[in-house]
Automatic annotation (TrEMBL), chain A:
PROSITE patterns: SDH_CYT_2. It comes from Paracoccus kondratievae. The lineage of its organism: Bacteria, Pseudomonadati, Pseudomonadota, Alphaproteobacteria, Rhodobacterales. Its main location: membrane. It is a multi-pass membrane protein. This is Succinate dehydrogenase cytochrome b556 subunit. InterPro entries: SQR/QFR_C/D (IPR034804), Succ_DH_cyt_bsu_CS (IPR018495), Succ_DH_cytb556 (IPR014314), SuccDH_FuR_B_TM-su (IPR000701). GO terms for molecular function: electron transfer activity; metal ion binding. The keyword Membrane applies.
From TrEMBL, chain B:
CDD domains: SQR_TypeC_SdhD_like. InterPro entries: SQR/QFR_C/D, Succ_DH_anchor, SuccDH_FuR_B_TM-su. It is a multi-pass membrane protein. It comes from Paracoccus kondratievae. Its main location: membrane. It holds the Pfam family Sdh_cyt. GO terms for biological process: tricarboxylic acid cycle. This is Succinate dehydrogenase hydrophobic membrane anchor subunit.
Length: 130, 129
């Protein structure tokens, strides 16, 4: 036991070097988008509270909402909402026992990414067109 | 000594006696939010760009006010229960307790702020008319 090489043995894959399958990436993205949505809801609720506080408070909040920072937060939140919604619907199917095969999960992951991007682009188009 | 697990302790609610309700609450709020989310997006999209007076009048109307109230209340309860899953996964001991408390207080603070703002806008419209 005295000559055991302790520093150069093969290690089991760690999360940081292990290439996650697409289904794992779309799964963790559900959690990330859900928590990131805090930014969007805080911005909108702050905006609403500012509107009933004073003209000065509203001018400040409204400036942030309409600024490039507000645009990034709200557009990002809008995509995150669509993504989280579609992922949540998929989760309901998972819970019911459907779509759990590896190939099915891969296909639903691709549909999830494509669907959320398409819905987000459509939402932006509708928003700026009307 | 009995080697068999008593079936009644394993059946139904599980060993913690509360995970089932948590999962069911997430399912119900998820279905509600699947409907509320597109409606809330429409409400917010139509509100962006309004002046302060227009915004007060807009959220004084029933549809924007009720959709916003429902979305924020159901959404933040969904958030509180959702962060609980994340906290249980990543935190232990005192940090876990602190994170759960912060998450619940934050969630209800957002709900209270939104409901207060909506109430002021709704009641304000009646007083002015």
């Amino acid at each position: 036991m005295a000559d055991v090489n302790r520093g150069n043995r093969p290690l089991s894959p760690h999360l940081q070097v292990y290439r996650l399958p697409l289904a794992a990436i779309t799964s963790i993205m559900t959690r990330i988008t859900g928590h990131a949505l805090v930014a969007g809801i805080v911005l909108i609720v702050w905006w609403l509270v500012a509107a009933v506080t004073s003209p000065g408070a509203f001018a400040c909040a409204d400036w942030v909402v309409r600024s490039w920072l507000g645009f990034i937060i709200l557009t990002g939140s809008m995509w995150a909402l669509w993504y989280h919604l579609l992922a949540g619907l998929r989760h309901l199917f998972y819970d019911a026992g459907y779509g759990l095969e590896i190939e099915q999960a891969k296909k639903s992951s691709q549909a999830l990414i494509a669907g959320s991007v398409v819905l987000a682009v459509l939402t932006l188009i509708v928003f700026f067109a009307f | 000594m009995r080697y068999l697990t008593p079936r009644k302790t394993a059946e139904g609610l599980g060993s913690a006696h509360e995970g089932t309700q948590h999962h069911w609450a997430m399912t119900v709020s998820a279905v509600a939010l699947a409907v509320l989310t597109p409606l809330f997006m429409i409400v917010v999209a139509r509100a962006i760009g309004l002046s302060q007076d227009q915004l007060l009048a807009y959220f004084g109307r029933p549809f924007p006010a009720v959709i916003t109230a429902l979305f924020v209340v159901v959404g933040m309860i969904h958030f509180i229960k959702g962060t609980r899953i994340m906290i249980d996964d990543y935190f232990r001991g005192g940090a876990r307790k602190a994170a759960i408390i912060i998450s619940i207080i934050f969630g209800w603070a957002v709900i209270a702020a939104a409901v207060y703002a909506l109430a002021r806008m709704g009641l304000g419209a009646i007083v002015v008319v």
